[in-house]
Amino acid sequence: MRLGEIMEDLGDIPGKKTVVSVTGAGGKTTCVLELSRTWAEEGQYVLAGTTTHMEDPEALGVPGAVDVQAGEIRKQMRREGWILAGTPSGTEGKITALPEDLFQDAGQAADRIVLEADGARRFPVKVPGQGEPVIRQETTHILILAGLSALGRPLKEVCHRLPRALAILGGEPGQILTAEKLGILLEQGYVQPLKKAYPETKIAAVLNQADQAENLPGITEEIKSQVSAPVYVRTRQQEVHLIYLAAGFSRRFGENKLLWKLGEKPMYLHLLDRLQQIWQEGKVRSLTVVTQYQEIAEEMRRRQIPAVINPDSSRGIASSLGLGLGEASGKGHRGEEQFYCFFVADQPQLEKETVERFLEEFLKSKKGIGCAAFEGTAGNPVIFQERYWDELLGLSGDTGGKKVVKRHPQDVFLYEVRKEELKDWDYK
């Protein structure tokens, strides 16, 4: 479930402003950002922050207000929909809690408040120490996170406050963390103490990093059997980035085929117009164009489409792939699952509806690579899950993504389309 769905399932407390404290380990900052964005997109004003320490907005690449007055926080919150606000902590790249007067003032202008209320030093599991977590009294909901990437690994490698965990579980530091043991740590370390301290607050455990767990249903049931609060599995949002390759030399065509008029407009604009529409409709996260031609770059500036100039297209298509990936990688939200779909600019007959169905069916397939195909033969576009990032960047010369496709046939989804749509115009 997405965090917004989890909060909807838990429900608000009538007559109280929703104040969420995110505790535990295994992705708290990511969850604070996701929940803030979700509610802001629904038209609510959200104040995000911390009661301890967290990364500052600049490091996270999100709307922020650090070391400013409440009026400025309110102003930015109204402009952006949500704001991550805090005070410099004295540690580079970190913020700490707002002073109480600023928190109260800015909080009055927010519809909802989301706070990171624990520190785990990047461990996926934590048992709180004395005085932890730091929960404000007005908190209405407490979400306790645990990262499922910790399962099957030695406790000493995955747990913050190891002595506290051993006091609960007994045994040796090197014992393997199982789902049952994780449930016990959540119950005795967090749920029971928090229920006692905050009896009117809604408390739930959220299992994060679920894509790294095998036998997820069995793991979830085992943890639920140990925990007296609701237990949810958080799923990551799938974000698709479209990368349009328009940097070729058209050697066989006899002239620059991308700028060659096909009907009323240059060839490269036929498919690009459809991709731009998909992007503007919010069906994908980003659209990036890679080109070596100033005419195309200027048109992208006019359309406000991000474009990257490849200054040395003679190095081959791999250089354009790398430039496109570099630009698109900065467009995704932290913690979400990223996919990169490459298009070539000489397929003017590829239809918008075909692209949309291809992306939809690929994401349903749960495969890591997808290709449009005709009679089982893979063509373009090609989409890759983020785990293939390093392999794509490792390509060189005129070796395109098809080399990565051939290395992983078991992870490839083929989507059949009409032959005409896959035609690329190498000749007039």
Automatic annotation (TrEMBL):
State which residue ranges cross the membrane: none
Coiled-coil region: none
Domain MobA-like NTP transferase spans what residues? 243-410
* An example molecular function term from Gene Ontology annotations: nucleotidyltransferase activity
- One Pfam family this chain carries? YqeC
PANTHER family for the chain: MOLYBDENUM COFACTOR CYTIDYLYLTRANSFERASE (PTHR43777:SF1)
NCBIfam families, alphabetically? selenium cofactor biosynthesis protein YqeC
Protein name, per record: Selenium-dependent hydroxylase accessory protein YqeC
Q: What organism does this protein naturally occur in?
A: Candidatus Blautia merdavium
